[in-house]
Amino acid sequence: MENPRAKEILEHLNRRSPLSIDELASLLAVSTVTVRRDLSEMENDGLIIRQRGGAALPSNSIEPMFHQRHKQHLELKKQIAKYAAEQVNEGEVIAIDVGTTAAEFAKELLKKNNLTVFTNSFQAASILAKSQHQVYFIGGMLRKSEMSMVGSIAKDTVLKFNYDRFYMGLAGISLNSGPTDYSLEDAEVKRCFISKSREVIALVDKTKFGKSSLVTVCELDAITTMITNQDDGTILQEMAHYNGKLVLV
């Protein structure tokens, strides 16, 4: 976070959220023009949610837009995506979830050959359009904030096929709430992929552990393998009762 005011803005929002632009300008002793510029940068980094005349912190029920989250913890996501893609074997039939880590995973798959890929992510499908893989884009209703296809058409289509592996993203994962997501609609499609997949691989950066979002996606043990980043021990504590394979990259 290069802008020193960004840290101060987050501190004020942690005390009270939302705050108006005028309130932030007064607290920071800067002009409203400066605050608007700062908020625009922070929105692009996925740190805040812009509201009419002000800003708020993301909450369990407010999902940041895809483009807002894309740059957030990007290096952590790339580490996970690279490792996960290295484990994919030629000829496999895989499914890719929506989300920013899944999009990074799709980029890594450009280095692989001869895959059959199903996805309800517009972002992942667009990336894989540059590949030689056989790509099936699941239809349905478009969730514009996530650029994902959801609803009955998407669910019915997913359930028609069988997958070697489903690469799943999550908004949070904790001991009490398990694997969670922002969106009920996205979670329903995830469950369909889970039910038809031989293995379920969760791609979850370390900042998601200990956090809960709106809806529980599945039981923790429905996840075959969880790929995340090295950390200070928090992940091992949160995953104490996880019986699957935990990979720290």
Key traits:
249 residues, alpha/beta, 7-stranded parallel sheet, 3-stranded antiparallel sheet, 10 helices, 36% helix, DeoR family transcriptional regulator
The beta-strand count equals 15
Shape: globular
Rg calc: 19 Å
Number of helices, counting only DSSP H or I runs of 4 residues or more:
10
Q: Major sheet: order of its strands?
A: 6-5-4-9-12-14-15
Distance between the termini: 24 Å
Any overview of this molecule?
The protein is of the alpha/beta class and 249 residues long. The chain is 36% helix and 22% strand. It contains 10 helices and 15 strands. The strands form 4 sheets. It has a 7-stranded parallel β-sheet with strand order 6-5-4-9-12-14-15, with helices on both faces. The chain has a 3-stranded antiparallel β-sheet with strand order 1-3-2. A 3-stranded antiparallel β-sheet has the order 10-11-13. The mean pLDDT is 89.
Write the layout of secondary structure elements.
Layout lengths: L3 H12 L3 E2 H8 L3 H13 L4 E3 L2 E3 L9 H4 L4 H13 L6 E4 L3 H9 L7 E4 L2 H7 L5 E4 L3 E3 L4 E3 L1 H7 L4 E6 L3 E3 L3 E4 L2 H12 L1 E7 L11 E2 L8 E4 L5 H5 L6 E4 L1
Parallel strand pairs: 4-5, 4-9, 5-6, 9-12, 12-14, 14-15
Antiparallel strand pairs: 1-3, 2-3, 7-8, 10-11, 11-13
Helix pairs in contact: 2-3, 5-6, 6-7, 8-9
Question: In summary, what is this structure?
Answer:
By secondary structure, this protein is α/β, with parallel strands linked by helices. It has helices spanning 4-15, 21-28, 32-44, 66-69, 74-86, 100-108, 122-128, 152-158, 184-195, 234-238, and strands spanning 19-20, 49-51, 54-56, 93-96, 116-119, 134-137, 141-143, 148-150, 163-168, 172-174, 178-181, 197-203, 215-216, 225-228, 245-248.
